[in-house]
Amino acid sequence: MSLRVWLLLVVVVPVTLGTNPGVKVRLTQKGLEYGRQLGISSIQQKLRTIKVPDISGKQKVSPIGKVEYSLSNMNIVDVGLPKSAVTPVAGTGIKLSIGDAFIHLHGNWRVKYLRVIKDSGSFDLSVNALAISTSIAIHSDETGRPTVSSVSCEAHVGSVSVKFHGGASWLYNLFTNFIDKALRNTLEKQICPLVADAVSDMNPHLKTLNVIAKVDKYTEIEYSMVTSPTVSESSIDLSLKGEFYSIGKHQEAPFSPVAFFLPPQANNMLYFGISAYTPNTAAFAYNSAGALSLYITDDMIPQSSPIRLNTKTFGTFIPQIAKRYPGLMMKLLLQTIKTPNISFQPNNVTIQASATVTAYAIQPNTTLTPLFVLNLNTSVSGKMFVSEMRLAGAVTLNEMDLTLRTSYIGDFQVRSLDNILQLVLKVVVIPKLNVKLSQGYPLPAIGKMKLVNTQVQVLKDYMLVGTDVQFTG
Question: Which residues does the UniProt record annotate as the domain Lipid-binding serum glycoprotein C-terminal (predicted)?
Answer without folding.
Answer: 264-467
